Amino acid sequence: MDARFNYYATATGAKFVKHVNAAGAALKDAGVPYATTQLVLLRASQINGCGMCTDMHYKDAVHAGDQPERLNLVAAWREATVFTDAERAALELTEEATRIADAAGGVGDAVWENAVKHYDEEQLASLVSTIALINAYNRLNVICRVPAGNYQPGQW
User: Fold this and answer.
1) Which of 69, 85, 114, 143 is most buried when burial is the number of CB atoms within 10 A of its CB?
2) Other beta carbons less than 10 A from residue 109's beta carbon
3) What are the tens digits of pLDDT across the range 68-98?
């Protein structure tokens, strides 16, 4: 499969992605564990059907030391015993925020209150921003049909 359009090779696309990447860089020191961030990125990408981002975040997580068996259970995290309560709260927040149109009112109070139990305000700001950011990347890649499978950890 080839990309429909090389968005990233256009002047407008390159400029936009440069700013989006800068926004992402601002989230690195907010105190959310790297493994949790990768779970969030992976789950949103699965929901959105973004093969490129699913491939990238799975490989980055494995490269950083997370277990493939655990990552294979992200799509079924509710039934899996390999995630901490804090990771479950982040995954639940990710799902509701990514599927925002599926529920009247968006993210429910119970989901938010569960996240607040595990993350402070800086971490919550990082999680919310990470979820918004990956949803934007997912949409760019899905719209342009960016193929998956060739990503190498650390490539970007």
Assistant:
1) 114
2) 8
3) 999 999 999 999 999 999 999 999 999 999 9
Cα separation, 100 vs 96, whole angstroms: 6
CA distances from 40 to 7, 11, 56, 124, 127 (A): 24, 30, 13, 12, 8
pLDDT in tens, 27-66: 888 899 999 999 999 999 999 999 999 999 999 999 999 9
Beta strands in the chain (DSSP E): none
User: What is the pTM (predicted TM-score) of this model?
Assistant: 0.94
CA distance 25 to 145: 25
- CA atoms of 91 and 96, how far apart (whole Å): 9
